[in-house]
Amino acid sequence: MTVLDLLIYPDARLKNESSPVTVFDEKLHQCVAELEETMRAGPGGVGIAAPQTGIFQRIVIVDVSIKPKIKHHGCLILINPEILEWDGFEIGREGCMSVPDYTGNVIRARAIKLTAQDQYGAIHEYDMEGYEARAVQHEIDHLDGLLFIDRLVSRRHDLFQRKVYKKSNKKTK
């Protein structure tokens, strides 16, 4: 398997729209496996979209199960995802592997109903809310050439430089 290189903002390719997946074959399965490995290689990554790696197809992987006490569907492979319904709105802090130096406050739907295909072409429908719904909306935005910084509540007050925590050299007793 391969950890793929990520496109980093301000790379203009991050603004490209992605094409629907029409062929569900071994090449697609390999692509999904490499995307998942790339997502898991990043610190705290809970999602990845194919365009973040320069693959402009409508493929998203989301797995928020690493976050404790979060309602989730496990590791979701979402191909050609489409949000059918949404309900309510919440402001939440987001970060992105393609915008590694910043986080920001973004308004998203609190709950969504989603349809997507899996890597074999079968169609599934999901109802999700909270953090998982936020993560899926964030990743679907990548498919349409949008980044979280395009959806900030306020560019002046809601974009934050990411903090870098260094390990202490102090010895503990």
UniProtKB/TrEMBL annotation:
| Record EC number | 3.5.1.88
Q: Which residues form the active site?
A: 139
A Pfam match: Pep_deformylase
Provide this UniProt record's keywords sorted from A to Z.
Hydrolase, Iron, Metal-binding, Protein biosynthesis
GO terms of molecular function: metal ion binding; peptide deformylase activity
Q: How is the cofactor bound?
A: Binds 1 Fe(2+) ion.
* InterPro entries from the UniProt entry: Peptide_deformylase (IPR023635), Peptide_deformylase_sf (IPR036821)
Q: Which reaction does it catalyse?
A: N-terminal N-formyl-L-methionyl-[peptide] + H2O = N-terminal L-methionyl-[peptide] + formate
BP terms from Gene Ontology: translation
Cofactor(s) named in the record: Fe(2+)
Q: Which domain of life is it from?
A: Bacteria
Q: What class of enzyme is it?
A: hydrolase
List of residues binding Fe cation:
96, 138, 142
Summarizing the function annotation, the protein's role is: Removes the formyl group from the N-terminal Met of newly synthesized proteins. Requires at least a dipeptide for an efficient rate of reaction. N-terminal L-methionine is a prerequisite for activity but the enzyme has broad specificity at other positions.
Give the family per the record: Belongs to the polypeptide deformylase family.
PANTHER family, A to Z: PEPTIDE DEFORMYLASE
Under the heading NCBIfam families, the entry gives:
pept_deformyl, PRK00150.1-3
Its recorded name reads Peptide deformylase
Organism from which the protein derives? Candidatus Venteria ishoeyi
Q: What is the lineage of its organism?
A: Bacteria, Pseudomonadati, Pseudomonadota, Gammaproteobacteria, Thiotrichales
Q: Its encoding gene is what?
A: def_1
